[in-house]
């Protein structure tokens, strides 16, 4: 740091030089020599003390003039009107009628006072620079926030559009699903209609290298004529189902030319009771799965002797129809239309 006011240094140096007497203190701009202070009253004086002079120590003090405050008009000499005329010997305390006076005791104090620290202008400049940087950073942050908010707004708008698109497509998918389900039902119905004249016979022995003609003759003679007592059954096509396997007779599926022959065959199926043969209708895989579940669900009724009969994709128990609910995955009574 450097001296900001060199004249202040000169004034303080002059004041320090003028206070060369150790017992005199600079107390103010207007100085008057007051009477000696200390133990100078007659009733307090000790033997050997001098009350007319400055005492053995020659103590003298310069105190400020109080004439302007305590002198009457026309009186030129100062009059001390303080209540306690015995001022303290320590003038710096300001006790009694005297004012506190201080002197420059330590010249190094001046150097310390003349170097208080950084200049205020420099500190203010630093603070203003920092505030400017903070303001710039704040502006940048606000700009980034505005950009981010704009991007979020665009994203929200796109999300709204996407939501509307997804909603519309969801409705379309639901509509398409209904159409597909309708088509599945129609295809299943057509498939079952195409299988209407088919019957499946189980238990027919399968010799190795069996020709189709031999299979047709075996079914016609051994089953239709000998067991069911039915003649003149016209067969359009006959073959076995599945791949050949050892020690296993594959079922035989055949298609009748006339659907009325199928009705006659099922009327005489009771004649197959106790034999190794059995006859069933041919259905689509969906209907076959439903019939299997319905038949398994009626096991308790069948074991108890209740009359149970499968009718296409429904089951009749004690004269009441039941159907299979695919959502509930259980058998439910068929409600009236």
TrEMBL record:
Gene3D superfamilies associated with the record: 1.20.5.340, L1 transposable element, RRM domain
Keywords: Coiled coil, Signal
Highest taxon in the source lineage: Eukaryota
Entries under InterPro entries matching the protein: Transposase_22
Keyword Aminoacyl-tRNA synthetase among UniProt keywords: no
Signal sequence region: 1-22
Coiled-coil stretches noted in the UniProt entry, renumbered to this chain: 159-193
Stored PANTHER family: L1 TRANSPOSABLE ELEMENT-RELATED
UniProt-recorded name of the protein: Uncharacterized protein
């Amino acid at each position: 740091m450097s001296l900001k006011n060199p004249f202040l240094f000169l004034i303080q140096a002059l004041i320090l030089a003028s206070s060369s007497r150790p017992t005199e203190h600079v107390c103010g701009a207007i100085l008057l020599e007051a009477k000696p202070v200390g133990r100078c009253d007659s009733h307090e004086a000790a033997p050997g003390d001098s009350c007319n002079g400055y005492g053995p120590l020659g103590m003298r003090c310069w105190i400020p003039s109080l004439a302007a405050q305590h002198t009457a008009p026309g009186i030129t000499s100062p009059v001390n009107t303080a209540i306690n005329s015995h001022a303290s010997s320590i003038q710096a305390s300001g006790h009694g009628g005297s004012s506190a006076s201080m002197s420059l005791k330590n010249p190094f104090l001046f150097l310390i006072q003349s170097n208080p620290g950084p200049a205020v202008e420099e500190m203010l400049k630093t603070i203003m620079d920092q505030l400017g940087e903070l303001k710039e950073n704040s502006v940048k942050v606000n700009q980034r926030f505005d950009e981010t908010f704009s991007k979020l707004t665009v994203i929200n708008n796109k999300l709204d559009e996407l939501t509307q698109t997804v909603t519309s497509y969801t409705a379309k998918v639901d509509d398409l699903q209904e159409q597909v389900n309708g088509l599945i039902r129609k295809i299943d119905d057509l498939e079952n209609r195409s299988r209407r004249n088919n019957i499946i016979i189980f238990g027919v022995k399968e010799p190795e290298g069996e020709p189709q003609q031999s299979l047709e003759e075996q079914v016609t003679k051994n089953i239709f004529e000998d067991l069911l007592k039915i003649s003149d059954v016209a067969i359009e096509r006959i073959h076995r189902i599945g791949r050949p396997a050892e020690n296993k007779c594959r079922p035989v599926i055949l298609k009748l030319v006339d659907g009325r022959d199928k009705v006659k065959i099922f009327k005489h199926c009771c004649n197959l009771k106790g034999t190794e043969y059995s006859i069933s209708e041919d259905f689509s895989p969906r209907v076959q799965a439903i019939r299997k579940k319905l038949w398994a669900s009626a096991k308790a009724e069948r074991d108890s002797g209740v009359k149970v009969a499968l009718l296409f994709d429904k089951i009749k128990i004690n004269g009441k129809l039941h159907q299979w609910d695919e959502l509930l995955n259980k058998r439910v009574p068929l409600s009236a239309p």
